[in-house]
Amino acid sequence: MPMSTIIMIHGFGACSTQWKFLSDHLIVDHLTIHSIDLLGHGNGGKSSIRTDYSIESTFEKMIFDIDSIADDEIILIGHSLGGYLSLMCAHQFPERIKNLVLINPLFTREQVGPGLKIMNQLGKIFYISKDHFPNRLVKFGHELSKITH
Questions:
Q1: Banded model confidence at residue 9, pLDDT cuts 50, 70, 90
Q2: What's the pTM?
Q3: Where are the chain's structural domains?
């Protein structure tokens, strides 16, 4: 079986370690698993002289980090702000995305319509099955019937 690379992107105010519970369950021979820190989070580049923490700068750093990990198709998992940035990545670089998983992606009111349009165009989105990690999802207050496929 060919090797697949999973890259996980955290949400606002979190860091890459939020994915430890998930990555511990995904250790199999054909997967390499990475999580990266967004700009200004965890080890993602905090600086007393840096003032640009815009979505654009955060996205550019995320793409730089992804490119340093893998140069082929990836499975991209994003939560909250990481979900929004993952959707941006899939929209701008669809050839790089094997599968896209969005968990409670962050959208402003103005972004909901365009975000849904992009999701429909991509057609590669899959959902966490209720058979996988149900205790974790329930722990975070999600009703499984509304988020599983």
A1: very high
A2: 0.68
A3: 4-120
